[in-house]
User: Fold these one by one.
Assistant:
Number 1:
Amino acid sequence: MNIPYLSDLFAAALSVAIVVGYHMFLRIRVRRDPGYTIQAVLNRGRTAWVERMMNESGGGILAVQTLRNAIMGATFFATTAIALIVGTITLSTQSDKLTVAWHSLSPVGTIDPNLWLLKLLILLVDMLIAFIFFSQSIRLMSHVGVMISVPTASMRPAFVAAMLIQAGRYHTRGMRCYYFAAPLLFWLFGPLLLVLSTCALVGALYYLDKSPARAAQVV
């Protein structure tokens, strides 16, 4: 195995370790402080919102409109993921023209074209997973739109809230795949940029994942 392969392997392993380490840190903080992340705050808000919509008369129209807006947002991201998948496939057909130019920034020189295609394949899988997550989010929110109008005697608000929370989790995971696409794209230029972009991404996520109250305390 030559130096370019080893450098890419080391950079990929280091980047995965950085991302996994950040999420382990995030999980530990959430156990100590359940309101540390914006996701936890949103989940409490979703539960309260579902209970209000199902217990108040006339709340069905507002609930359906709110869910429709959320579905439109998830649909946009799912459609964008498909467009990026098509673009990645198109890019893979031009590997013979772009490999040398895209690796001019790499300190280890030009990478083997087969390795460059492997990077594109990983980027393609990332976008495909993002599409699946957004599709699942749309599916669950569509179900919530039906059940939220059902009387509480037939459907418990806690069950509907749990489904809405799961839809939100799928949406968050889809956005994570979008975020991870940035380091994967920089990886096409070389392993060093993969590590640097991963560190920048984790730094951005550190602030994005904080709840507004925790972020205000830091400021």
Number 2:
Amino acid sequence: MTDAGRLVLVHAAAILARAQAAGAELDQLKSGAAGGLRLGVFPSVGARVLPPLLQRLAGRWPSVEVELVEDASDRKLLDQVEAAELDLTFAMLPLREGPFAAIELLRDPYVVLVSASSRLAERTRPLQPRQLAKLPLIAFRHAQAYPQEFLEAHGISTRVRFRSDDNETVVGLVAAGMGVALVPRLTLDPARDDVVPLELGAGLPARLIAVVRHRDREPTPASRDLIDIARALCADASGPASRQERRRL
């Protein structure tokens, strides 16, 4: 592509995004009063945050139908927000470049998950990242490969025994004593007693989870309420979220 072509492409992408946003708002206007709400979500948020969130939203907006779009990759969900195919999505900060408005909801720290029958389960001190090099690891394949990439970038080689992008599979393998897993705390069902989360020593930054919309689209009242409910739920779950906003909703 020529320099001129690259320049035109940048502007064309922005124009297309605005046009798609305008089209979505016109469709919403034609559909009548309440309409629906299209929400993107990835697995751990879907399992832990979504049920009480939708329960409260239904109490306020019983006529609003929420369409869920699930994907292990928040990048794909962001693509759909940009194309005006989703009204809102959960995603992890920092975001890729795009027409997004986002606010941080939750800091989700990483923990080392071990079987309840393991001697490590009795450990009271944080496990240091370098100690993971001595343990068989159950790792995510693609969706949450960040922890392993972080370790390798800091010279910590790991022995990966199995890989899966399904949260329950990863936790189940740990429970069966097949290895340990480095996972975001939100991955773990608090009701499970066959696995134990160990605190991880300093070094691995927490996941930052945000709710995201298209900045050129005017959010509906139901969308605004969903954002407010999500903020309240996440604050109740983990204390006040960071007040540093990437772009104000």
Number 3:
Amino acid sequence: MNAVLFAISFLFATLESSPEVQKWLENVDAARNAFPEALIRARATQITGGQPTGSAEFEIYVKGQDRSLIVFRGGTNSGRRILSVGDRMWLMVPGASRPVPITANQRLMGGASIGDVARLRFASEYTAVARPGTETVNGRTCRVLDLAAKSPKAAFPKVTLSYDEADRVPARIVFTLASGKPARQVDFTKFSRQDGRTTVAEMEVRDLLTSESKAVTRLEYLSYKPAKLDDAIFTTQGASGV
């Protein structure tokens, strides 16, 4: 039975998305990653029982599809850096002699992981099939897409994406483990316009695997600006000087 399920899963992952659904994935990517090079100022807030219980502010430097640098500003994590180049990530702690390799599932705060602010690309990394009809998610009428990762190394091989076709933005993403168990839910709660483009301004993340599933981590993008960034920033040597 497991062999049959594996074969079906493999077949689904190798299918191409229809041109229409592929365009939807590109629209979702555009809302989450509006500019090829950008400097983003952001805040993460842990909310439990409707009340904020902690927060952290950081800057995100982004260049291309596979390079980013997160720099924490203020608070207990001030000065920490998370560098992402391709599939590799490092945590850089002030005073430490060398960077520490980490994964995209490393916690940023609460239920939010590094992967939630990194440059995951649905259009190139997943194939998708649209379910019939629509569903209402967060007050939006959405098409629901079942996504399958193209790479067997993907942290989440299955994803459910609720897509607002009218506004061309994501409403909700549920990331699922290989076992079929939902692991993380991301709700997109606010959008803004930047240089004529629609971008995500706020999202709320829930960890569905732990006792913190009732808690919410709110990620706010306080400013989002196109920028020309030096390649040296995205090296373990150059990142320490940002």
Number 4:
Amino acid sequence: MTIRSIVQIGNVIRNAVMFNVRNWPGGIMNSDSLIQSVQDLFALLEQRNIDYVLVGGIALLHYVEGRNTQDLDLLMAASSLEKLPELKVVSQDMYLVRANYGQLQIDVLFTQNPLFKQVHHKYSKVQPFLDRNIPLATVEGLLLLKLYALPSLYRQGNFARVGIYENDIATLLNYYQPDVPALLSELSRYVNENDLAEIKSVVADIQNRISRFRNGSR
């Protein structure tokens, strides 16, 4: 099941930014400029032959309805940033860079991380998405990335983001019913035993919720 949304990527991001009260003190962003930044970015990635994969909330729009997000998430090699001087780096750690392109916020996940590299290589596919062909993470790729991030989010005490990620995971599991044991087996190569146990517990809880939902809707 693929959702062929008519919503433009730029409009989704613009609405998320404009309706987030944290952005109000600095003034509401120019919506036309934001949408143009989105269009220009994808054109730039294509022109520079950047080997990237779209992930995160925007990629999720290809598979489910109703997702909102303030930024674009991309998988790419760290060396690709050298081809994109237009991206102004705000913060950086070993596997993640947060950058601005005009008014657009971008999170770049480096494929130097073994799991990110695997998702880029094995769990992505060029697909028609809105008005162009874009390399997108598959359902399995998105699930791997979100499950991988959960233990860290729990340790950070980021309750709001945990809720978003768990909801995304539940929605994908409910709609697409992927091979969960295979995903957990894949994930076991990239996380320690404690984190894997926590991830399995979260997945089991989500699967129980899905089962209750399906039984209740009969």
